[in-house]
Structures are given as structure tokens and as C-alpha cells.
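Can anyone check this?
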Amino acid sequence: MGPPYLVNSLLIKIYLVVLLARIGCIKLLNPCLHQPAQAPDWAVHYSKQP
């Protein structure tokens, strides 16, 4: 372990990167993740109807 402020800044940087990655994943991947889950449901539902 180095000086506390170095460890602190490192943890803060890691936390910010993870936080930004999560925000990015939520913004970018949420539509992508939800569509495969939902699209087959309503697509199959509507495709079965005349």
C-alpha cells in the first residue's frame, strides 16, 4: 500500500470508471438487452394472430 491519498485517488478512479461503465452500459445496452427479451414475445404473439 502506498500513501493513503494515492490509494484513495486510485479507488476513486476505479469507482468512477466502473460508474461510467455502468451508466454507459445502461444507456447503450439497455435497449439492446430489452429488445431481444421483449421482441420475441410480442413478435411471436403478433405473428401468430391473423
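Reply from J.R.: I decoded it. The mean pLDDT is 67.
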